[in-house]
Sequence to fold (480 residues):
Amino acid sequence: MLRMLNRKLVLSFLLPSLLLGQLACRGGGELQAPPGSRSTPQFKPGVNFFSPQQDVEMGRQSAEQIMRETPMLNDAPITNYVRALGAKLVAKTPGERFPYQFWVVATREINAFALPGGFLFVNAGTIAAARNEGELAGVMAHEIAHAALRHGTNQATKQQIAQMGLGVLGTIASASENPNLGQAVNAIGGLGANLAFLKYGRKAEKEADLEGARILAEAGYDPRDMANFFKTLESEGGQRVPEMLSDHPDPGNRIEYILAEIPKLPVSNSPVHTSPEFEQAKARLTGRGVQLSDRSQLKRIGADPGHLETSVRPARPAAQFQNVQAGDGSFALQVPANWEQLGGNDATYIFAPKGAYGKMPKQNGESLMVTHGIFVGAVPARQGDLASATRAFIQRQLEDNEDFQIVGEMKQTTVGGQSGLAAAVAGPSAINGVMEIDITYTTATADGRMFYIITIVPEDEAEAYKPAFQQILRSLRLAR
Fold:
């Protein structure tokens, strides 16, 4: 998905594979707190159809069914210890006063998950793998941060946008005014245990790490223990990567940015690293390993994003083409006859089929999102050559969006009948939940600027759009 935000090109992606509405709890263990909110988290998850109260209700619905299908650890001392540790961390957690609950899953897998509204579970294997209480607290603080930052319903909102089509974006004013809110709640919130959240992208994971590190420090722990647990994950990998490691970003990168954050945090001169309660709980757990399952048998629920019917897709490019020309005469090209022109009042022109674009409100304006089509424009080339200017252009996109990567090497090509370059970035879309391939083609203009065309398409539709993109490139004519 490509978006324009405050006249600045931004590429934004979100991992596409669907993750089970992460496990949670029922019965006791609820940490009650009066209504209202604590301090404001330092990160915002973005557009959200849901209210905090709906976070709680959706999390509770999913938790109740999941608890009927998943083996929970029937050991009061261990469960009570985890709840007490959770209460200590929740006391320092910003955001809404969710009714946080903590449970332990009877599996050797190393993992932890949080549902919206503060329903959190820790796998028994995570407790066994942690070398001290600080490491376990780091895992729990990370998941608490996901709930506090409302990442789950932010992802659910994006999934609902995909199901309803990009046209819904133009109607979103606020959660309370959105006419589609009821439909969204019914479609997602009513799914109970089938609530499907998108696997978090690296941006959301980094936010949860940094917010979790702050929670740790304020609760009296050393955030270095959070970083140390990632080393534990790497060492536990072997032939079978731990579940937490497969669901989260590279541990080495996480260690680096958590350590860089520590000077900004109120870390105690004598932080807590472990406790007799942790050592007792771990000893009790490791002594009863035969009662743990090898797999938690958690269902990975959600439609395969590779199937086109799971999302609203625009019509394929028409066989007929129309001629378009920049207002200043700087370029002319052909685009499919069923594509519309957006923008054109500044340096960037956008061409896309109906249903492939929409506006999303932001705190400081709005962003125009595009899932299929092209961006065309020219920018000053401050660097001395086309290759350097192209790299800088791509790097600006990478700096603004942490959930996509450069694919392959930059290649020589022909753009507008003259020498040019092509560079690809790819990542999962924040809107339709499938992997995208966006290719930037650049060449030099007669007045010394860098001209670009960016083609945007989901990976599973790339072949269908390839002829259209090829014709667009062949038809391009630049002013001489």
The radius of gyration is 24 Å. Residues 58 and 189 are 5 Å apart (CA to CA). DSSP finds 13 helices and 19 strands in the chain.
